Structures
1.
Amino acid sequence: MGDTLTVGGLERLYTGSIWAEGPVWVPSSQTVRWSDIPNNRILEFDPATGTTQEYAGGVEYTNGRTLDADGSVVQCSHGRRRVERDRDGRVTALVDSFQGCRLNSPNDVVIASDGSVWFTDPPYGILPGTREGHEGDQEYGGCYVFRFEPGPETLTAMITDLVHPNGLAFSPDESVLYVADTAGPGYGVPLRIVAYDVRDGQCSPAGTGVELEEGCAADGLRVDVQGRIWTSAGPAVRIYTPAFELLDSIAVPETVSNVCFGGPDGRDLYITATTSLYRIRTATRDTASRNPAPNHD
Ligand code: MG
């Protein structure tokens, strides 16, 4: 099954997080940056040296992140209830409110080729007893997928019918947006990924998606250059076709939160999974527009 999609075995590169999340490959430093959310810090792995260092601490519970066209990192902060930009260590707010209400706790983010910033806003960083932020109210009364346009600044609720939208990724031509919903049976819905057609500035259900069994949340996902979906699924990474046929499953020793493509040629899959960062070599790479890597074919 899927023997051409990965090459070699899974490597554990770092362990010592409480809940690792939000990986992105940073081309300017040739490193993988990710969040250790409950420890309130950001870590960075350098594949050239095989070492991990703390990139920043006291970061207000960052979660998912992506790369903008200018090479800066755009990330979600549960604690600041906002999406923010990190340009060479200088962190500035992008968006923190919707119609006068604070956001919940932005979870994951992607940037479209037109520069618009799409992010999910479930409540995990404001729930009672949270270790991933600060307790607080859901001020606008939902958990939406938003599109933020930087200039002039507008924030639009694009998807309002998911319970806890979480990971998200576009198809290579950006005609489809895949969104994970991690609410699950306790909220009367299955763990699932739902596909939306993106057309004329609107999102509408595409009628496709996949339901995952309990304990196998599709928290974070990425789409490769051939349009396949690489998603966390409990203690595994699953790879689906755009029609959601299962192509392969990579077993991981811990619960997986998220993935990203990276490495010098963009073909390494980095996996954040509970306490650890893992890597496996693949035969593909991320869509070039969202994870530019030099020397790829
Ligand atoms: Mg997430």
2.
Amino acid sequence: MPMQNVRTSPIEGQKPGTSGLRKKTTVFQRPHFLENYVQSTFDGIGGIEGKTLVIGGDGRFFNDQAIQIILRMASANGAKKCIVGQGGLLSTPAASHLIRLRAADGGLILSASHNPGGPDADFGLKYNGPNGGPATEAVTDEIFKRTTQITCYRIAAADDLDLSKLGTHSFGDMTVEIVDPVADYADLMKTIIDFPKIRSLFEGGFRMCFDAMHAITGPYAHTILEDMLGAPKGTVINGVPSPDFGKGHPDPNPIWAKDLMDRMYGADAPDFGAASDGDGDRNMVVGRGAYVTPSDSLALLTAHAHLAPGYRDGLAGVARSMPTSRAVDRVAASLGIDCFETPTGWKFFGNLLDAGKVTLCGEESAGTGSDHVREKDGLWAVLLWLNILAETGKPVSELMNDLWQAHGRCYYSRFDYEDVESAKAGAMMDALRSKLNALVGVKAGDLVVEAADEFSYLDPVDWSQSSGQGIRIAFEGGARAVFRLSGTGTQGATIRLYLEQLETDPAKLQVSPDVVLQKVRDAALSISQLEPMTGRTAPDVIT
Ligand code: G16
């Protein structure tokens, strides 16, 4: 197979964000853009000669073409083997599992997660290391450095490989093994979750609706929920992945999974509803008339995980990202286990999981996971919930109420201001940062500031330091506001404002979150001057 060294030069805008490189699809399709980033990734991880890589994506527009380019470049760079999901498909957690199962040297995952897909929407690519988890900051920094120095990339001249045929194929000197994307993942779930228990739940007439949002979890959910666990056909909706996610926004939250929310809050609602995102790592959980925030979901799973076979011996510890509510901290304290606070980004959980310091982890951004893989895992979270529902026999609303009665309720909401002019968003954050030291004791509306700082993290395993990870303002009485700039947007800046209020009075645990959070919202907006400084009067999305 002839190889080519193609001359190129650095391209602006290849700095990986919270989770790999995410850009408009049209940007990835520009000449040399994908190739430069892939070569820089290979170089940034010390070359791939003789190595084995797992490759797959969420099936969004350009997935198929990008995989062919990556395979040709992997071959030209001397890779020994690539393990590829059939049709180029792998959910992010399934890719993480495959890297671990096959002891591969790493993997490339093609996805822009919950962002829409299509020619005018978003695409993304990230490298996961041999532990199956997203590359650490040190690795992504090295990859970025290579993108600024690149002078040529290597690519083989070859026809496209037919990715529909399972089995082992030769591709120049490299082997490509095409695997069923679902089988190994489903086998793993059987070892962690009590499948017979859930099967009897469905046999007893339990009704569920799983919205795959036209994205990657469709095939996984059809196989596991309907074929293996006996949920009636039709339990999984929007279950066929499409390159533009049915022209939808595959983000499992009450805004974008509105059809599911309407069903769950309507007459004759099923017992349990759930949704997952573009690449299958996020999840949303909703009971009959009872939406569960991701932060509360993490707390609930922590409290009850021991009911599932994979966690019978209890949890080593738990971790949450800083903006995630402190509900899980309260459960962890009652269990007598450690609770770690990390920056936003699943990559920060990897060391804790590898070191055996935590078993479960999660984030406010609809992510929950455990030490079974090194990514968050949407379907796993749904299965663990089902296991808990089957064991306790209680509906979601009762489980949540029990949790709040025992530990108090952390009312929580996130405001997203999207596509803000980057300069204005930066100026607002800078102004806020500059007054942090003077904030303690300041009265804002009805609240008084108790503490204010910018979060930085010292990894307790490798002692790496990550600074500038979000501004947090704590108020007397248990309220907290956090400001961050998102690292996953593809246009302008997205300001995230996270609001939280702890309530421990048993009589005040069923109030509307909007009402409870009004004071902290007003205080946060007044201190930050977000509205006058950005020209925005309302968030684009509230979750
Ligand atoms: C990624 C990361 C998560 C992070 C989320 C939002 O998730 O893996 O750790 O919480 O982005 O990040 P940000 O607030 O910077 O936009 P995903 O599901 O998009 O891969």
